[in-house]
Design a protein that fits this description.
alpha/beta, 6 helices, about 35% helix, globular, binds inosinic acid
Length: about 190
């Protein structure tokens, strides 16, 4: 943000460069400098996104040894009872967007939500979770562009998918959870006189 002092630095542990680039942009606008700690973190199997995020943040802190965030996301599709949810990464790698389209081929109800959990970990505060979700719909066809599920997720209020909306950062699940996180993180820095 023009004129905003860079207040603090922290690392984002992830293997996903797209996630990092979006998070770096969003947090830099909020006054936080994000460093890329590129790594593939071990993920526990669970039906609960928060449990996965918490465990990932602990694993990340063991590696980075400094203030670190990780992110865990899930695409929850109403007519599939929330599938793929916590299994979104595995489902994307196996059946992908084509597979989701096939699963919804006969479905007129295409409501879904994208959930993001940012998990912060450091030596003083332990793990803190910041969760947000954005409601939307699964598109009727796969659009071009974007990454991951971008080409099939239309956020509410838009006519295009994440892949083609004008400014995904304005209303993405990631922007929402990172904004919650930054409010807490910058508040904590202020309280500590930093
Ligand atoms: P993860 O387990 O947190 O890496 O994310 C679950 C799945 O959702 C992965 O396949 C990601 O690529 C995908 N994903 C997460 N965020 C986005 C996004 O903003 N756009 C498209 N796909 C995403």
């Amino acid at each position: 943000m023009a004129g905003t002092q860079q207040l603090s630095e922290l690392s984002f542990a992830t293997s996903n460069e797209n996630k990092f680039q979006e998070a770096e942009r969003i947090l830099s606008n909020l006054g936080i400098k994000l460093n890329f700690f590129k790594t593939t973190l071990e993920e526990m199997q669970s039906n609960n996104l928060s449990d996965i995020a918490e465990q990932k943040a602990i694993n990340a802190y063991k590696l980075v040894q400094k203030s670190v965030i990780i992110e865990d996301d899930g695409l929850f599709i109403d007519s599939l009872n929330g599938f793929p949810g916590p299994y979104s990464s595995y489902v994307y790698d196996t059946i992908g967007n084509n597979g989701i389209m096939n699963l919804l081929a006969d479905s007129k109800i295409r409501d879904a939500k994208f959930v993001s959990i940012i998990a912060y970990c450091d030596g003083d505060y332990g793990v803190k979770l910041f969760e947000s979700s954005i409601p939307g719909k699964i598109s009727s066809s796969i659009e071009k562009g974007g990454w991951g599920y971008d080409p099939i997720f239309i956020p509410d209020g838009e006519s295009k998918t994440y892949a083609n909306v004008y400014d995904k950062d304005k209303f993405s699940h990631r922007a929402a959870s990172l904004t919650k996180f930054s409010n807490w993180f910058l508040g904590k820095q202020k309280d500590n006189g930093q």
